[in-house]
Amino acid sequence: MKERNIGLLSTLTCYILWGLLPLYWHLLENLDSIFILCNRVIWSAVFTIAILLFTKKFGEVKAVFRDRTKMRYMIPAAISITINWGVYIWAVNSGHVLDSSLGYYMNPLVVFAIGIALFHETSSVLDWVSLALATIGVLIATIAYGAFPWIAVVLALSFGLYGTFKKLAGVGGITSIAVETIMIAPFALAFLLFSPASSASIAQLTPLTTTLLLLTGIVTASPLILFTFGVNRLPLSTVGFLQYSSPTLQMLIGVLVFHEVLTQDRIIAFIFIAVALVLYTIGMVQRAKKARLVA
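The structure assignment produced for this chain is given below.
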């Protein structure tokens, strides 16, 4: 029970930190989004490499780079998470926090769809009903916005594909982030050195924004450390339920802090997604109980 409580606290803290990220990125809203992204990549690489060197586990990174099979999946994983980070930062600083929260609400259902399509995982009627309801929610959002909700869809797909590639590669935790950011870091560094947008952002730096940029590595890796620590101590169904706290926090921040308008159409779309998630969670809990009975 003690281990379970520690795992619960670690995982919940992870999702709360992820949910509060819009507040952090908003403090950097005057800077170019790609400039922020590049700093996040570079300082995440620095921070994770430092941790792995300190714990004498940097050899794991070298082993991944030498493994062609793993790299076949780590390269698209790095591209997927870079797209996810970039779109998310831009969305937050462009007044689209609600769209980003919708994307992360959709993510578990995207993962379910990928599991069915690629890994031929078993599914129940509840799973298919939840996927249908989520699809209706996306259609409602599309009609309501007058345009395809690309921010939500790109965030959901990119993060879903990221998790899929990491599963195929069999690399997790800090090692994965280190490998991914090391691969993207040369491109990020080139942007910081040669892009006019980077020069404009550098000219606007203050002591506060400089400090916040330097801390992006810690901000990125710390929730992941907590997640890795907690997920090994909790049932998957509990982890799945807790993940909804992150987009819920984002939605509240979008409405209460950034004063984004939660229109009636958006509310209806969110309701469809929420009902879909409830049904999917019920199905996930039922599968977990059956698995325990069989074991």
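Interim note for the steering committee: The two ends are 20 Å apart (CA to CA). The mean pLDDT is 85.
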